Amino acid sequence: xPSNRITEELRPRCFDDIVGQTHLFGxxxxxxxxxxxxxxxxMIFYGPPGTGKTTAAEIIxxxxxxxxxxxxxxxxxxxxxxxxxxxxxxxxxxxxxLLYIDEIQYFNRKQQxxxxxxxxxxxxxxxxxxxxxxxxxxxxxxxxxxSLFEFKPVPPAECIKALERAVAHLNEREKLEKTASxxxxxxxxxxxxxxxxxxxxxxxxxxxxxxxxxxxxxxxGFNVRVGNFDDDTHFDLLSCLQKSIRGSDPDAAIFYVAKxxxxxxxxxxxxxxxxxxxxxIGQAYPLAAAVTRxxxxxxxxxxxxxxxxxxxxxxxxxxTAPKSNSAEAAIDAALADIEAGRGRIVPPHLQSPxxxxxxxxxxxxxxxxxxxxxxxxxxxxxxxSFGQNKNEDAARxxxxxxxxxxx
Length: 407
Hints:
- The protein is of the alpha/beta class and 407 residues long.
- 51% of the residues lie in helices and 8% in strands.
- A five-stranded parallel sheet has the order 2-3-4-1-5, sandwiched between helices.
């Protein structure tokens, strides 16, 4: 039988059956109250996998009488989106269309922009879900037209309720009377770190492997990874990765890449490695950003398990590269001045199209001529200081020669 059969059979049919998201779907839950009042708006659901995002979208469509269409951004194309959106004009969609796009972070900007025309005029109500931070991966124009709702890892006590229903359902379906102790159910709930779908699949596998009782020993036979991968753990591990690379420890860097990948954090690893390339390596090895970008794009195209190889290459390259945060320090200092209200009036000779008094550097020896570029109130401000590494040392020596002064 299909491995996902039980998860579909046990999928909640109403808000009361959803476990762990009381802040959204409990009696006083904000989404539930909104839907019960007859209000359905564009929504973005974000949070870990297996926490009820797809289920909630289906229930909302059912409660509101809307036609439900589901697309997965990992496989859907623009034509798939347009096919659904075109059906918005059908007489069979008088109640409206609710388009659910799972893993929307895999849609590129053009694909996301294709949605705007239809959600703008109300022909389609969009619910998009992502396991990533929506502000990093979803087009701002869509975010501005949507309400964001966070799905949290399901607490063990709530997950146990779903597991108890699963045991009863399996016994009824299979005409058996197998049991599972409270300790075993709690063990499964904690081992799957708030992912109810994973917990139910693990229970089902253990059910068929057990004789009479589903014991912890049977559960352990499925190579359970016990842990609590919540939001804090997510950011802690990414922080460990960055600090290891910043500290030039390739062994620790590889360990944290492996640990994050084992938890399904491919996109987060890619994003953090690209941050590190600019923040911690920067001017010491400017090509690091381009190399890291290429490795990350390659990893996302390959998918796991092959993605581990380019990401390992990127992590080792960054950990063993020379380090410099001179660019970060420079931009932060400039932003501080701007926030303080300084530098509001730029030099007139730099303004287009006047150019009064502007000296064209290419007309001078070594393509350099001294002139004021910063605003008057910041004319002596120094934001960038050369870092102590081969690349920036070479740049410093060059400019000392050209400018005839220490830089």
